[in-house]
Design goal:
This protein has about 55 residues and is mainly alpha-helical. The chain has a two-stranded antiparallel ribbon. It has one domain.
Length: about 55
């Protein structure tokens, strides 16, 4: 399960930000480090699940 949190003005902005935090979570997972939290816009991924990709 992935959980994305944050605020966006439009659905397109929400999708873009969710993809950004997914990409950051994937990089962190591959590097063996903690998923980054605390972006200035409030968005973060709370978990990364291998094999799952956003549409």
């Amino acid at each position: 399960m992935q959980v994305f949190t944050g605020i966006a003005d439009t659905p397109a902005a929400a999708l873009r930000r969710a993809h950004e935090v997914y990409d950051a979570a994937l990089v962190a997972h591959k590097a063996g480090i903690e998923i980054p939290h605390g972006r200035p816009d409030g968005w973060c991924a709370c978990e990364y699940q291998p094999g799952w990709e956003p549409d």
